[in-house]
Amino acid sequence: MPALVLLGAQWGDEGKGKATDLLGGSVDYVVRYQGGNNAGHTVVVGDQKYALHLLPSGILSPGCTPVIGNGVVVDPSVLFSELSGLNERGVDTSKLLISGNAHIITPYNVTVDKVTERFLGKRKIGTTGRGIGPTYADKINRVGIRVQDLYDESILTQKVEAALDVKNQMLTKLYNRRAIATGQVVEELMGYADKLAPYVADTVLVLNEALDDDKVVLFEGGQGTLLDIDHGTYPFVTSSNPTAGGACTGAGVGPTKISRVIGILKAYTTRVGAGPFPTELFDEDGEALRRIGGERGVTTGRDRRCGWFDAVIARYATRVNGLTDFFLTKLDVLTGWEEIPVCVAYEIDGRRVEELPYSQSDFHHAKPVYETLPGWSEDITKAKSFSDLPKNAQAYVRALEEMSGAPISAIGVGPGRDETIEINSFL
Ligand code: GDP
Ligand code: IMO
Ligand code: MG
């Protein structure tokens, strides 16, 4: 089983960080293939809590080589502050590899992200404001800056100039902001070149050679399926492909190498930022999920929107990613509810719909059709095997599995590494 992908099956924050960290001990490489420091992955090791944004969660496993692939967008200032934060806590980060083809989030990309959101007003996406969308836009427009450009100042200057040509027109004439000077940007970026150099590598070659040598490579999705630019709830999405196919383009590895795709699935649903969310709760249950689940964004500190489990979305994630299995997280958060509603289908303009509608207007009108499952009140955080779970919790897991279209290999009953029930040799 040389290559596996681990990704979010909902709208992000499913617990990818914990799952990646768990697998990190038994794989050789952990690779981020898309996104940037918009991600917020929490890993709890013993009494230590780590919040990772740009770095692969495998960085906390000593034997594992963390890789930032070509599909990632890198903010160098964030990279170095995250690295030094880990170094201060005794984590060795010297094995990190960064693709020379990864694009750089420049200071003007961050500015553009913030001013466009402000300009959109009520129609804003609710981005993390980290410059992610504008950096990917530059990449696709072929005016992006790549890590390797830091090693040729003349080319870098020409590229920054080309990128700023249009942006300065927009900033000054449309958004009433000051123009950004090419020299200033080039100077700032060149200031990172020497520090970055030891990490820069031909990661495509490294990973393919590793796979040829039967090493195990884990691709860690940055966000969730429904935030995917192609398969998510566009336009309320991020600007890259966290879905399984993104691992191939974002790391330069062929699909024939991937034998397992694990979907991380929260036992209920959350979302940060704007966009449709059929099972969202605006009542005390929503408030309780937020409180008990600690549902506050790791990156922006925003409260997460909370709602019941949505099986339509889980089925969709199984299909678009070709999921082989799920890791169900945060089952412990549901302890204490007498009954737990689960969305099994939608009602759209009077029709019952079993699958995610492709039309944005239909999805905006989707009302959840609920089935109610009996809850449990016993503390499950100490459960070590499936049979330790109360009967109703077991039935909840089996019902979700049945509805979601792939087997559940592991269950999270708390944030810690050991608060995990393994069902089908997950690790
Ligand atoms: P990610 O972005 O997918 O990595 O997820 P986040 O780290 O943003 O959010 C998941 C949160 O749930 C973190 O605070 C984790 O420590 C926590 N967590 C993960 N798995 C479990 C679990 O099974 N139970 C509980 N109670 N918390 C969990
Ligand atoms: P993790 O890794 C939840 C959301 C933002 C916004 C939209 C676009 O913690 O699962 P962007 O800054 O990416 O252009 O914002 O995507 N978003 C996330 N929501 N978890 C994340 O990452 C997210 N990364 C981006 O809130 O709605
Ligand atoms: Mg998160």
From TrEMBL:
GTP binds at residues 12-18, 40-42, 304, 330-332, 412-414. Binds 1 Mg(2+) ion per subunit. It catalyses: IMP + L-aspartate + GTP = N(6)-(1,2-dicarboxyethyl)-AMP + GDP + phosphate + 2 H(+). IMP binds at residues 13-16, 38-41, 128, 142, 223, 238, 302. It holds the Pfam family Adenylsucc_synt. InterPro entries: Adenylosuccin_syn_GTP-bd (IPR018220), Adenylosuccin_syn_Lys_AS (IPR033128), Adenylosuccinate_synth_dom1 (IPR042109), Adenylosuccinate_synth_dom2 (IPR042110), Adenylosuccinate_synth_dom3 (IPR042111), Adenylosuccinate_synthetase (IPR001114), P-loop_NTPase (IPR027417). The keyword Glycoprotein does not apply. The active site is at 13 (proton acceptor), 41 (proton donor), 139. It comes from the Bacteria. Pathway: Purine metabolism; AMP biosynthesis via de novo pathway; AMP from IMP: step 1/2. Substrate binds at residues 298-304. Its EC number is 6.3.4.4. Mg(2+) binds at residues 13, 40. Keywords: Cytoplasm, GTP-binding, Ligase, Magnesium, Metal-binding, Nucleotide-binding, Purine biosynthesis. Its cofactor is Mg(2+). It is an enzyme of class 6 (ligase). The keyword Metal-binding applies. GO terms for molecular function: adenylosuccinate synthase activity. Homodimer. Plays an important role in the de novo pathway of purine nucleotide biosynthesis. Catalyzes the first committed step in the biosynthesis of AMP from IMP. This is Adenylosuccinate synthetase. The gene is purA.
